[in-house]
Amino acid sequence: MKWGEFFVIVISMYTATMLYHFTDESFDTACETWKNEIIEHARVQPGFVRMQFLAARPRAMAIGTWEDNSHARKFMETGVFKRLMSQLEGLMVKQPEQAIWDLKYFAQK
After folding, report:
1. Which parts of the chain fold into alpha helices (H)?
2. Is position 3 within any domain?
3. Which one, of 93, 34, 91, lies nearest residue 64 by Cα?
4. Tens digit of pLDDT for each residue in 31-63?
5. Range of 52's domain?
6. Residues 9, 93 contacting (CB under 8 angstroms)
7. What is the pTM of this model?
8. Domain containing 86 — which CATH number?
């Protein structure tokens, strides 16, 4: 493919990642718990753009993208992460690691 075959967007969005370290034995249960606690709740929030969950046993990374950080903050203020952490208690080998990202470039066919 050539560069000209892609639609390129240069905008600013807010993306937060959370890297989870699950026990190998609890991996499937933990991933299902994340899906049940997060996906549908996020989809209906104002400013929601996309939510992805990448898995590489026994780790997983959640990637949430929002129009801006105020929407992500309001989503977290609903208590969703606190509920998730309660559900994941005993299924992780260590606490999740959060990182914040600003989208600079995005290409999509």
Report:
1. 27-43, 69-77, 80-88
2. no
3. 34
4. 999 999 999 999 999 999 999 999 999 999 999
5. 17-108
6. no
7. 0.84
8. 3.30.70.100
